[in-house]
Write a structure and sequence with these properties.
about 425 residues; alpha+beta; Heat Shock Protein 90; five-stranded mixed β-sheet
Length: about 425
């Protein structure tokens, strides 16, 4: 096994190097540099001169364009002087073209760093000035190539930088072995500095992103805690008062009928249940991830839910099919909340009506429905469908699990809420 691994390592290394060369030469891409990027801290004093009020990218590109023009002019003058001294003057147009080809990539490197390096590489490979100068490269062109290589190391991925470095090393050794050692050092320097700058920039960007996420999380937690305080101070207080008043009301008069006493006891019990649910919600809001709370209700509490609806005056019949135990917690919670909201709506909008509750589990899908008959008070079920946030909340809960919910009036004048919830959906808790 070790022998196979060692035998594969040279092939893997060749593949990595080839991939880097292909990326640098053809397929690679560089990070964009927007013109409106902020000024570096060490140059912000330029705002007092007026220059710093312009976008930094625009000023930098104009600066390097001016430097490029100066290098082109200087290179043409140098080539004219040296070629005339050696009696091999090729013509003014030829020298201008050589100077432009060698130096122009410097002006392009900020906006198109990889393209600029490719142009520079081709120019340095094809242009030979050893007949006129003591070195095989145009000096200003060598400077432009080094700057382009540095920008590639800063703006491009590691494999592109590796490929560009390999091509540059191979190029200087193929073109002139005598000057290759010194040229290799000049190539290594921008690669090392550029890579260090890229690592530093990446680390800063990741740190800033982490700080932003932390600040967002803190803001969300603060807002959740504020909502929890409002719920505790307002809603919980009023629910407690309802429970206390419902408990105390029968003792204010001996003439309170027994049915009224029972209704007041149910009101107190319902208020206490609401307080329990509210405390659970407050625990979710106050915790950082919403998971450090008591278990959420599921269909195992369906009997209690139906019993509460019956005690409120509804004539509820239930039909359960399939094994409803062992449902994923998110599916069970969503089903419980949908049934709870549908029954609550029936209590409010169709008191005393007949309500049919169905829940069935088959082929990995949980189906539930709540259908109530015509309301005793003759209310319009269309108003029930249009008002409030309950139906919106039910649809959102079903959609979070990839399910579907419908809520619409029936032909008999009642209202029907049906939902299908796939068990394979992600847990919504």
């Amino acid at each position: 096994m070790a022998e196979e691994k060692s035998a594969d390592e040279p092939g893997l290394l060749r593949a990595v190097l080839l991939d880097g060369v292909v990326a640098a030469a053809v397929t690679g891409r560089a990070e964009s540099a927007p013109l409106d990027r902020p000024w570096p801290a060490w140059l912000r004093w330029t705002r007092y001169l007026g220059v710093g009020r312009f976008p930094y990218g625009v000023v930098e590109n104009l600066f390097w364009f001016a430097v490029t023009i100066g290098l082109i002019a200087g290179s043409k003058s140098l080539l004219e002087t040296e070629s005339a001294a050696r009696g091999r003057y090729p013509g003014e147009a030829t020298l201008l073209l050589i100077s432009i080809a060698a130096c122009a990539p410097l002006a392009l490197r900020d906006r198109h760093p990889l393209g600029a390096w490719r142009l520079s590489f081709v120019a340095m490979a094809l242009i030979g000035v050893s007949d006129w100068l003591t070195v095989p490269y145009v000096p200003a062109g060598a400077f432009a190539a080094i700057m382009c290589l540095y920008t590639v190391a800063v703006r491009c991925s590691g494999n592109v930088t590796l490929g560009a470095g390999l091509m540059a090393f191979a190029g200087v050794w193929i073109k002139d072995a005598e000057t290759a050692p010194g040229a290799s050092v000049l190539i290594l320097l921008p690669l090392a500095v550029g890579y260090a700058m890229r690592v530093r920039r990446t680390s800063r960007r990741e740190l800033a992103e982490q700080e932003r996420r932390h600040a967002d999380a803190e803001a969300v937690l603060t807002e959740r805690q504020r909502i929890a305080r409002e719920l505790h101070d307002v809603v919980a207080h009023h629910m407690s008062m309802i429970a206390i008043q419902a408990e105390a009301a029968p003792y204010k008069s001996d003439a309170v009928p027994g049915v009224t006493r029972q209704d007041l006891a149910e009101i107190r019990s319902t208020a206490l249940d609401a307080l329990t649910e509210l405390r659970r919600i407050l625990g979710v809001l106050r915790s950082e991830n919403g998971s450090d709370t008591a278990p959420q209700p599921g269909l195992e509490r369906l009997d209690d839910l139906i019993a509460g609806a019956r005690n409120s005056g509804l004539n509820v019949t239930a039909r359960l099919t399939g094994d409803l135990a062992g449902l994923p917690s998110g599916v069970g919670l969503t089903a419980y909340r949908i049934l709870q909201e549908a029954l609550s709506n029936a209590m409010r909008h169709a008191p005393g009506s007949r309500v049919g509750v169905e829940a069935g589990r088959a082929d990995g899908v949980l189906s539930i429905s709540v259908v109530n008959g015509p309301p005793g008070g003759g209310r319009n079920p269309a108003r029930f469908a249009a008002g409030g946030h309950g139906l919106v909340g039910m649809r959102e809960r079903a959609a979070m699990l990839g399910g579907r919910l419908t809520a619409e009036p029936t032909s008999e004048g009642g209202f029907a809420v049906t939902a299908t919830l796939p068990e394979t959906a992600r847990d919504a808790t």
